[in-house]
Design goal:
Length: 277
């Protein structure tokens, strides 16, 4: 019979880990990789791009998803004037946990004039999943950022729902060394009941946040002008040089429709091609 200590060791040995780190810089007006580190089950792939387009990278999780006890980290560093479009090969799935959290840390550094579009596909949570995510961004005053993260609570087309679990999503943004945006979303325990509350999601099963830097009142007005085209609910605020768009929809398909509408209207660069395939 395995002892408690031995069981813990076996559990830890069977958990997935993954680390990727990319440093890119602008050379002659074209963004090039200068450092790439990959370890564990995470990989970065670089599709061919047209001349003049930003460097594009696709994150691949060869482990096929995440579950409790998995540990992943992503580091992106863009030098002066570098441009990067980053996405994922597929929606990330977070499966049922027996108690431990699946942990993901995203760290971004943007030098002067750098431009990052961080547009992964949806994160899909299964019932009793536990996800703890941290996103830390340090950017120069004149760098620019488009960052969108979407969470879908169960695959509605498969009849799946999320009744219990954990989502802890911590975002911190520093601009010119100053903390300008900080928030933490936490849903713990009876997630399904909380999402059903009118003041939370009114029964919706898909949510997303889109952070735009720079962003201003004109950005907000452009989003509000799309109200008649949305499949779900979309709200936007702008303050202190940034804009934040919130999405709430009945399912992942409706959510993706609304996100694409906003990104296309704002013309903040191209979408990853896998979003449209």
């Amino acid at each position: 019979m395995l002892t408690t200590a031995t069981q813990s060791e076996v559990f830890a040995a069977n958990r997935a880990t993954g680390d990727v780190a990319l440093t890119a810089t602008s050379v002659g007006g074209r963004t090039r990789r200068v450092r790439l580190h990959e370890d564990g089950s995470l990989r970065l792939r670089f599709p061919n791009i047209a001349p003049g387009a930003p460097l594009e990278t696709i994150l691949v999780n060869t482990g096929g998803g995440m579950t409790g006890g998995d540990r992943f980290s992503i580091e992106l560093a863009l030098g002066e004037g570098a441009r990067l479009l980053a996405g994922t090969a597929a929606a990330e799935k977070v499966y049922r946990s027996t108690g431990a959290d699946a942990e993901l840390a995203v760290t971004v550094t943007l030098a002067a004039g750098a431009n990052l579009a961080w547009l992964p596909q949806e994160t899909i949570l299964f019932d009793q999943a536990r996800l703890n995510r941290r996103i830390d961004i340090d950017m120069a005053d004149d760098a620019s950022l488009v960052l969108c993260e979407a969470i879908v609570f169960g695959r509605s087309a498969m009849g799946e729902t999320v009744d219990h679990g954990l989502v802890r999503d911590r975002w911190r943004l520093r601009r010119g060394g100053r903390l300008v945006f900080a928030e933490t979303l936490q849903l713990d325990g009876a997630i399904g009941a909380r999402l059903a509350e009118p003041a939370v999601a009114a029964g919706a099963a898909a949510v997303a946040s889109l952070l735009l830097v720079p962003g201003d009142d004109a950005t907000a007005a452009a989003v509000r002008g799309l109200n008649d085209t949305f499949a779900g609910e979309v709200g936007v605020s702008a303050w202190n040089g940034l804009a934040l768009v919130r999405f709430c929809a009945r399912d992942g398909a409706a959510l993706r429709h609304d996100i694409i509408c906003v990104l296309a209207a704002l013309r903040r660069g191209e979408l990853p091609r896998l979003w449209l395939s």
